[in-house]
Specification:
The chain has 142 residues and is α+β, with helices and mostly antiparallel strands. It contains six helices and five strands. Strands 1-2-3 form a three-stranded antiparallel β-sheet, with helices on one face.
Length: 142
């Protein structure tokens, strides 16, 4: 856990597929910058994929990493960026899938309130909530 304005917190970082199901999960302290774990999360990015991320991930090295992996990064530029970057607000609307993913895993009370002191235990319960989403998506209907 790390200090932030709200007290001791942590951040969940996730990479989801087009169905909103988690592919990669990571956890950082609350005061850590968003793009600290970008290389770990994007290590399995597939070619011809589209990376949709918020402004916290607007960095040249993240865009270059996506290009090296054969993907296209559609990240809104920060307001203080000097050179313009190609960005499509129309395609960016699909980024709400990650927000819906966070909403679904926080339906689990233990994930929403973080009772665990150890980051490994908390990440384990985030992963369990994610597994539950996968099982619901692929459960057989009689």
């Amino acid at each position: 856990m790390g200090r932030s304005r709200g007290g001791l917190t942590s951040e969940i970082h996730a990479l989801v597929d087009t169905n909103g199901l988690p592919v990669r999960l990571a956890l950082t302290a609350g005061e850590a910058h968003d793009n600290r774990l970008a290389s770990k999360l994007l290590s399995r990015l597939k070619p011809k994929a589209m990376l949709l991320a918020d402004r916290g991930y607007d960095a040249d090295w993240i865009r270059e990493l996506a290009v090296r992996r054969g993907a296209w990064a559609n990240i809104p530029p920060k307001r203080n960026r000097s050179n313009p970057i190609c960005f499509s607000p129309y395609l960016y609307r699909d980024r709400n899938r990650i927000e819906r993913f966070f909403n679904r895993i926080k339906q689990s009370r233990r994930v929403a309130t973080r009772y665990d002191k150890l980051a490994a235990n908390y990440l384990a319960f985030v992963q369990l909530a994610s597994i539950r989403l996968w099982l619901r998506a692929y459960e057989s209907t009689p």
